[in-house]
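Listing S7. Sequence submitted for prediction.
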Amino acid sequence: MSETAPGSAPAERTDHRGDGDDRVPGGPPLLQVRNLKKHFPITGGFFQRVVGQVRAVDDVSFDVHEGEILSLVGESGCGKTTTARCVLRALDPTAGEVLFRRADGETVDVAKLRESELRPLWREMQMIFQDPFGSLNPRKNLLEIIGEPLYVQGVTSRQARMDRVAELLNLVGLRPEYMHRFPHAFSGGQRQRVVIARALALEPRLVVADEAVSALDVSVQAQILNLLLDLQRRLNLSYLFVAHDLSIVKHISHRVAVMYVGKIAELAPTDDLFRRPKHPYTSALMKAVPVADPDHRAALQGLPGEVANPADPPSGCYFHPRCPFAEERCRTETPQLRELAPGHHVSCHRAEELDLDGIGDLESGGDGAERPFGRAPAAPASADAAPPAEGPS
């Protein structure tokens, strides 16, 4: 097992996005998440006593470097949004550390700060919400919406706020004169631009984007993604990007962390992850991505069974009831996230021996064989594995 924390030193590689960046950002991490846990109590009985815990986030560790885009992906309920909210202290973590390196070089543990100490820190950490309709107050115009963070942080001059709002509207591709209009006058894509402008009002260094484009039409999604990439380059922003759409993640990310039932199953540079995944769950997610070539659509496979219950997870590897390669060790021993190759971490006992398919294999046609999720040269899939079911959303 690697001595370094997952993602503490990402491997250099050519940027797959073709956007002018040559290397994955390195240097000291801007954000370090260490052994993060978030458990929600389950109460029952007449006196509403705590009878259990929902392990929404269960021992998650990763880093985000300055100028980097790290994506958290997984099925609904895997804990990716809860992780993002714990990073910003929108939720109080149950355990673990959230270490953030401030602009002055001081590193603070966000998880342990008092509320009074969080307010100045939020100038450097902001969030883009999923719903561009519900996240804007319909009773306020854009000047009030975008200017509110400025007022809270001490910018009391109305003219100074107007100048800054005009600058931000220009930055996100909207006209400055729109600042006197209300949210109902704008389309979904325009509203999301307003949400982005509000998040950038205080010049943050880290932006957490929680499903920032999932509520938009496909054509509008591309525009907002390109805007986010342009802003990231121009302002040297770091993104923690939460998503479930792998095609979006492949386009925008430097590195990807795949989550399953509150744990990280795999963390790797984007190209490495999509070309040759090391965890059966990652490969299965990719098999659920539609393929443009009709000759290879039959290769799409889903996952058997249901997602494990985070309130009562199975023993050993949480994924073993759905994994066609599970063996006795998987049912009894919890795998640790370990480094198989530079920058490529995986939580699977059999990662070295499995030969799994990625999206690149499907796009090129592979060898034409229909397999559950890949090949296991050392042993066949378990005899009691259920047949493939509908793929994950």
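Caption to Listing S7: primary sequence and predicted structure tokens for the chain studied. Confidence is low (pLDDT under 50) at residues 9-22, 361-393. The chain has one domain: 1-124+204-393.
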